[in-house]
Amino acid sequence: MSKTLVFCLDALCASDVEAMRAMPHFGRFMENCAMVRKIEPVWPALTYCCHVSMITGCYVDRHGVANNEKMQRGGYWNLPWYGKKSDVKVPTVLDYARQHGLTTCSISWPVSGGADYDMNLPMIVPYGYTGWDPTPWLEGMATKSLLDRYFYKHGRYLKGPDRSLDLFTMAMALDILQDYDQPDIMLVKMCDLDGARHRYGVHHPRVYDQLRKHDEEFGSLVEALRRKGTLEQTNLVIVGDHGQTDIQDILHLNVLLRENGFIRLNPDGTLQSFDAIVHSAALSAYVELADPTDQAMKQRVRDFLESLKDDERVRLAYVLDAQEAKECFHVSGDFDFIIESSLPVAFGERIDAESLYGSKLPGDHKIGAATHGGNPQREELTTFLAAGPDVKPGVVVERRPMVDEAPTLARLLGFTMPDTDGSAIEEMLR
Question: How many whole angstroms separate alpha carbon 213 and alpha carbon 193?
Fold first, then answer.
């Protein structure tokens, strides 16, 4: 039976495809690949929300990961990021693969800590960590045999201020392919293209330098399979989780909520109390009410948000309450409204800012030079490329939703996934 290897590039844009054709390893792969030109991410198009949908075939309201950071009522920011597989409320394609007797491997995939896969090295060390001992997050969350065998050799890549998850990921992936039987399904997730776009913008030359590095990494994986003798029996899949969009400014909508009496501060500028408060999802935002049962306040907040559609400084594109958000974007969680601006802005969260607008912070995952997290109909989309023994070469599908990816991977592995929101991209399959 064929095997499947998924190479995921965080923030791979549909517009990157032509540049990839000119690169040695991507270009060779694309000579005979099938592709979906544009994959629509889930709402919000944030990394963790998308990665979970990619392997469950379900939207956010069913899998339960509605942001990168955990959401909790009470006006909290900077909560820990989702990390454990137990946070995911539905099975993944790897779970079903194991049920069908197949071997599974996941390297640096978000929200996979403690997953019951044959080999698992989750993306679980906290975002922004610069310390020298990441093992407290990995122990009990990663496969013990892999840590015992390889961490002494490659753990240095996760340590210190210049830590590089991508270097760690590639070192681990190549060693696993060399030392073990190839897993029936293997996920390999890379981060640095996303970081480059957050720092420089969507189409900056340095972004394409980073894409070229990913080309070399992909080439290394292909060569590892060739040397192993399994390349011809492997379906290779290249995917992205979302695109990115260049932004001009940062909109601190909490300033307007404060000025209109919905937020009250202590003398030192910290939060005293609130009726409504904004939590950023980068290009979009969640609005939380202190008391969601207070219908009069809910209406007052909604009226205020609706008025911002005509405010030239804000120009909200939509205001949806929780029920409308579920119906429109298949999202649910601890929030009361979702909003997005029609302007090229990202949402900040400062409650003590002196002005409504602030400066971008290059490299920041929410308010960098470019970002994501909004309506998939608005921002740049991502793509899906596949080639191998079970893929029809040269097939081009124009557009599909992200939730179709997991059922498609399942079909490549010889089974179907029950009860998903998506369906397999049959046009691409033999």
Answer: 9
